[in-house]
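// run 5 | inverse folding | seed 20
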């Protein structure tokens, strides 16, 4: 789908803030014109925010969309939620654990308002971008949890063709960004498990590292790649109460074929006599710095940390998952299952690395 003006998301600020921003943005050759435009805007009518779906989003509409998304999750059994705020630098600015449904309903208006509040934030220099200060809100991210009988499957980074395959089975479809792979579908699978979830993601071509956390509909997607016109997460479709089974999804040809059972990798996961003596663990901060420098997700830093811990520090996947829960904010947000999944994926990758026999 081609990018359109409808995807030029919310960037409304006051005239005074715009004037201020025009002076603090570095490397801009349009500072004077930006100041002039900002002064003119003082006498112009205030526009409504525009979402990615082409829907004008006032404050009340944003809250309505957020409630609609919450209702979709509760309709398939979600009964508690982790809530996280992050800034455009992907730094955690707030975290609320295990909020109940009544708590979510009560606090949503205040949370949505907090997310939409634009504040100046400094962005460090990158490969092709200078250091600058821009106005941005906060990402409002939720992670839903359901009882064990129903598994929520997040199919992220879908393009239109992939989305059409899963559309009949999804209870919620979101447009999270204007890019081609900017769709996200959520399925509620009765009797699903981690192995089936993995096969479903592979079979549909979805992002395998999707953690189960999602930006709330009606709020902005504040990423550096989208500045200064940040898109708003929009609900494409909602089908409350739609729950499917693995057999139904198998009949639709969505999951990847089940692989033969294989033994978990052994060597080189536990070789304690070969551990470095000075450092017990790799530097997680360095892994995070490298991920941010390459404009990658926080999960990329988690995966890199696990690979290094298992390969070079000879840690087991279980030890690595426990350590990841200590050092990673994303692991704390997403829980033990996420940490174990990252560690096991890293163990499989390490085991697949060719080893020289003459060592």
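// decoded
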């Amino acid at each position: 789908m081609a990018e359109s003006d409808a995807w030029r998301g919310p960037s409304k600020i006051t005239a005074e803030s715009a004037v201020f921003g025009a002076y603090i943005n570095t490397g801009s050759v349009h500072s004077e014109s930006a100041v002039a435009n900002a002064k003119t805007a003082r006498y112009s009518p205030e526009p409504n925010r525009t979402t990615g779906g082409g829907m004008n989003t006032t404050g009340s509409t944003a809250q309505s969309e957020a409630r609609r998304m919450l209702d979709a999750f509760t309709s398939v059994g979600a009964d508690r939620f982790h809530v996280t705020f992050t800034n455009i630098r992907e730094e955690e600015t707030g975290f609320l654990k295990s909020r109940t449904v009544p708590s979510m309903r009560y606090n949503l208006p205040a949370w949505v308002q907090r997310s939409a509040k634009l504040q100046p934030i400094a962005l460090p220099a990158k490969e092709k971008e200078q250091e600058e200060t821009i106005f941005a809100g906060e990402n409002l991210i939720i992670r839903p949890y359901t009882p064990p009988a129903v598994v929520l499957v997040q199919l992220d980074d879908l393009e239109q063709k992939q989305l059409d395959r899963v559309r009949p089975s999804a209870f919620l479809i979101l447009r999270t960004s204007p890019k081609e792979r900017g769709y996200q579908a959520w399925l509620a699978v009765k009797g699903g498990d981690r192995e089936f979830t993995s096969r479903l993601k592979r079979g549909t071509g979805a992002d395998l590292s999707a953690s189960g956390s999602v930006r709330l509909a009606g709020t902005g997607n504040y990423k550096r790649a989208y500045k200064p016109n940040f898109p708003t997460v929009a609900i494409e479709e909602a089908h409350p109460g739609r729950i499917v089974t693995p057999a139904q999804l198998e009949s639709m040809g969505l999951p990847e074929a089940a692989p033969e059972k294989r033994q978990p990798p052994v060597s080189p996961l536990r070789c304690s006599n070969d551990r470095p003596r000075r450092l017990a663990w790799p530097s997680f901060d360095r892994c995070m710095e490298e991920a941010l420098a390459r404009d990658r997700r926080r999960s990329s830093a988690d995966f890199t940390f696990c690979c290094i811990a298992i390969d070079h520090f000879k840690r087991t996947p279980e030890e690595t998952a426990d350590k990841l829960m200590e050092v990673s904010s994303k692991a704390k947000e997403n829980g033990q299952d996420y940490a174990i999944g990252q560690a096991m994926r890293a163990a499989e990758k390490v085991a697949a690395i060719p080893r020289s026999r003459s060592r």
